[in-house]
């Protein structure tokens, strides 16, 4: 399959902060390998309740120091205005120009108190705070949920939440994982009808392990279509066949998204390069195609 007849998509990759020296070394190899694809940026996740704040910062600054665009996740949950002002100032001092602003996951055992929740309740408040504090220094990414956020009251309420983030100052958005392209295109259409033209980048998770995929999608409220569940489960311990099938399925999803007008692809790499590279190879995307978007 080839996407040479459509506008070149813009590629970005996501990592989680490694917890061990071995994990750190593996991630260095991974981001050096993926950097050859000339991505717009690498994003680095932030744990529930800010549990990986130091790891996120260290990973972002290392990637940035190696000459690559890096975007830390920032979370409302468990963060005060003073803490956020400090970390934003540190990133700015190092020349980091992009952040991903999220409400964030609640930590295990969260009791619902204002103190444990943090000073900001919603991501749009965090976006507004960043804009007020830092002006246009940061390109602000936010989250989008084609299959609806698990805690949203309705699809319309979910779209309204996104509109608030966009109007608060978000520059672009990355979606939660999905395997139903119609959900993505429906969400984009609803947002456009609300008068918002913010670029919405599909979030892509390569399929390499059925149990891992089920846990990941269950945690974020994404749906694995029944036909795909049954097919993946049928491979049992045949990891090679599952990965080959998963690569084809996700490649076809990416092709439909880009052909349908999606401005880019954001890969949830799980700190691995090979599964994502296999998809990019299927799509015949080269380093010259995957140039950075604003």
The main β sheet shows up as: 8 strands, parallel, barrel
For the residues shown, what is the average pLDDT? Answer: 89
Helical coverage, percent range: 40-55%
CATH class: Alpha Beta
The domain count comes to: 1
Using DSSP, what is the number of strands? 8
Poorly predicted ranges (pLDDT <50, ≥5 residues)? 1-6, 109-115, 287-294
Distance separating the two termini: 27 Å
How many separate helices?
11
What structural category arises from helix and sheet content? alpha/beta
The strands making up the biggest β-sheet line up spatially as: 1-2-3-4-5-6-7-8
CATH topology: TIM Barrel
Give the strand content: 5-15%
Shape: globular
What does this structure look like?
The chain has 294 residues and is of the alpha/beta class. The chain has one domain (10-282): TIM Barrel (Alpha-Beta Barrel). The chain is 45% helix and 14% strand. The protein has helices at 21-34, 53-65, 81-93, 114-117, 123-134, 155-168, 181-193, 210-220, 226-233, 239-259, 274-282, and strands at 10-15, 42-44, 70-75, 98-102, 139-144, 172-177, 200-204, 264-268. It has an eight-stranded parallel β-barrel, surrounded by five helices. α5 packs parallel to α6. The longest helix has 21 residues, at 239-259. The model is unreliable at 1-6, 109-115 and 287-294 (pLDDT under 50).
């Amino acid at each position: 399959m080839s996407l040479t007849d459509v506008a070149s998509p813009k590629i970005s990759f996501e990592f989680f902060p490694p917890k061990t020296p071995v994990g750190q070394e593996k991630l260095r190899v991974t981001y050096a390998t993926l950097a050859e694809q000339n991505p717009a940026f690498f994003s680095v996740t932030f744990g529930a309740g800010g549990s990986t704040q130091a790891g996120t910062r260290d990973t972002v600054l290392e990637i940035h120091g190696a000459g690559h665009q890096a975007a830390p996740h920032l979370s409302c949950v468990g963060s005060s205005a003073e803490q956020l002002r400090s970390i934003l100032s540190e990133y700015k001092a190092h020349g980091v120009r992009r952040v991903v602003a999220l409400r964030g996951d609640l930590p295990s055992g969260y009791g619902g108190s204002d103190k444990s929740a943090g000073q900001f309740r919603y991501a749009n408040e965090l976006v507004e705070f960043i804009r007020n504090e830092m002006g246009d220094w940061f390109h602000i990414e936010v989250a989008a949920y084609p299959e609806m956020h698990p805690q949203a009251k309705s699809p319309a309420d979910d779209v309204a939440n996104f509109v608030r983030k966009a109007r608060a100052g978000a520059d672009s958005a990355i979606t939660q994982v999905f395997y139903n392209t119609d959900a993505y295109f429906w969400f984009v259409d609803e947002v456009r009808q609300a008068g918002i033209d913010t670029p919405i980048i599909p979030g892509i998770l390569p399929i390499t392990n059925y149990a891992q995929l089920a846990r990941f999608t269950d945690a974020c409220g994404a749906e694995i279509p029944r036909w795909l569940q049954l097919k993946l489960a049928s491979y049992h311990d045949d990891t090679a066949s599952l990965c080959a099938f998963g690569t084809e399925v996700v490649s076809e999803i990416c092709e439909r998204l880009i052909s349908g007008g999606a401005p880019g692809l954001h890969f949830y790499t799980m700190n691995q390069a090979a599964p994502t590279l296999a998809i990019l190879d299927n799509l015949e995307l080269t380093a010259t195609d995957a140039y950075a978007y604003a």
